[in-house]
Amino acid sequence: MKIKGILFDCDGVLLDSEAIYINSLIDYLSTLGIETNLEDVVNVLGQKMTCIIKTLRVKFPLENYTDEELITGQREIFDQRFNQMNLQPMPYLLEFLKWCKLKQLKTAIVSSSNMNYLKNVVNRLQIHDYFDEVFSGEMVKNSKPAPDIYLFAAKEMNIPRKNLLIIEDSINGIKAGKNSKIFTVGYKGSIIEQDTRDADLEVRSFEDIKHFLELDIL
How many CA atoms lie less than 13 Å away from 127 in the CB half-sphere? Predict the structure, then answer.
């Protein structure tokens, strides 16, 4: 295996934002009279919003609300909290991205989130110069855990799947990576630690990923 490109999920990988979303979702559902907790909703992480709504409808009585109402309601709470925060990159992320450029590795953000959100994250973290591409869930039909977005990214970057590496933190993201037949790293640096046992490699820091890659590309 010779790695030539790295595909980064966004939330929970570039920044520790999963907890912000989950807590916003729990608080929004509470306004609808639905009391829930982390264990009940953590399985939605990694999916795009339309798929999250479908998942929530299976679990909770939401038949009196349209998809648009449910999407708008939770986004309002999340956006208010997210936009007030001083965003910080994950520990050692910037050093790792600089190392990737030094080694001439192609890099891309590959996320289920919409492009406006991804641009907001990139701008606020000031990481424009470290990524060659940004791919949004809006660009493909099926959300993670389907492999569509990773297959799309591989094709657009013109890099064989055997030469790519995915960094994911969520169950759905790891399933998407594995379904794409691309080597998938389960990153466990987020406050919300998810089940990453199905990943090809589990790590707790970007330093761990660098050490792994040094064995492969040097």
Answer: 31
